[in-house]
Amino acid sequence: MAKNTYHVCYICIINNKYMHTEEKYYIEFTICFFINKMINVMKNIKIILVDKNSIFLNIMKSFFENVLRCKIIGIATNGEAFNTMKNLDKADIIFMDIEMSGLNGFHSAIQIFEKLPEAKIIAVSMYNNPYMQNQLMNLGFKGFISKTRFYYEVIPAIKKVLQNEVYVAN
Are residues 98 and 131 in the same domain? Predict the structure, then answer.
């Protein structure tokens, strides 16, 4: 997918009739450099995914593994399965859906924060509600991403959370 991104950017540059050839080459080089640098930074990150929607779960898994080259060390479809994982302490970041049947994301995270207060959990939800976001941050979540803007927000969220900052999508 990174190659596709590069080709789309390249086509936009080549089709710009107002740009000089040297400018096009410089921008092309910058795009290549940025994509390679981003992939190199992301490829060592260990991630756990928790989401009730198996389709979205598979899309996230594919994106992290194939585009960002992250390592998926766990997948769960509900809070109960997540809380029984043996490798929770190995994850750099956990992406967790909030609305799940049974043990939802709120209650599952509360149990995990009791065992692992340093856990870096980013909430993923269809509901972009400022009140809910405040509740999540007060519980100890390190970030919030709306599912509708996942691809736009995931990289900035990862960068902020790995720097021990809180990320909330606009």
Answer: yes
